[in-house]
Protein 1
Amino acid sequence: MNIIDGRAHAQAIYHDLAQQVQQLKRQPKLVIIQVANHQASEAYIRGKIKAAEAVGIYAEVQNFPESIEQNQLLTVIAQLNEDRTVDGIIVQLPLPGHLDEFIVARAIKRSKDVDGFHPENLGELLIHETLLEPCTPKGIMTLLEREGIELTGKHVCIIGRSNIVGKPIALLALQANATVTICHSRTNNLHQHTQQADIVIVAVGIANFLTDDMIRTGAIVIDVGINRLNGKLVGDVDYDSVSQKASALTPVPGGVGPMTVAMLMSNTVVAATNQQ
């Protein structure tokens, strides 16, 4: 079984991006907005800063208290939208309950939306014209491409229909000429769908959700989940059982996660190039 090493692929991408950054007339700038202090968010932000340093991007973190009002946060974003030294803006999730994630995402200028969450950027996935694709789906597609996994004619089953992963990866897989099935919490007879698939992408946020009896022998399994179980990070895939049956599998940690961060850096370089 092939363990797909997302960390190794991400490092190779950083090397290529660093060469692109050297060709720019100025250093790209990424602003990370953090509201409140969450231990998990702190770890993710540190990872993004480290990746930015590897590429040559200047990453600035702007911290705000949990009590910040939505209008105040929108004012901050509006100022960053007009700042020509800023190429990319992201808001670290989750946000406190009184802040509307959809409104906040929509407020970011689409050309600086390096997370790829703006409704117009998501909408343009339908016609395959957006330059800033959502990072996790883009990372999955890049991982499959770099592993030499052809999607044309393949059956891809996606478990999860979120706006961040499930729906965008379905569109990208369709554009790559795959036949796509989207499953979710209301899907009847889930096993029947997953057992037919050549590639199964799992993004449900439930530890060890996908088991070996749910896939066919030789399937490729992409695990998007990040869950904490008994003090350990685990994915949505029961790794021990599925690894005995799949032909290729992304581990957690070390699979899709590093590629998501790499695509954030890629999108920032794209945004900086466009602005230049």
Protein 2
Amino acid sequence: MRERLEKLGAADIELRIGRSGQFDVTVDGTLKYTRSKTGRFPTDDEIENLVPG
């Protein structure tokens, strides 16, 4: 996931240990995706949409 976001140009990526099953994507300090709302991991298309183009 980190590598894919870096290739898309995300400048500030942070991976942190969280609660069991937690999966959040924060790009440049803004929460862009959280598994707690969707109940699943993001698709490849969703990952590409997380980073401003």
Protein 3
Amino acid sequence: MEEEIKKRFDAQDKLLEKIYVSAEKTRKYFLVVFIISLVTFVLPLIALIFVLPWFINVYISGLGNINI
């Protein structure tokens, strides 16, 4: 009886180790997806904050030079 319980515990330990490895891979995958999303979405928004005022200034000053 005791030997059977020990075998079950050993089997459960192996399965728990597999679950832990799988969960760590999933955690790392989500971290990479989060970083890629941050780079592809948030950084262009930050760049737009600086580029848009410059573009509007250049566009308006260009319109001011038009003689009709």
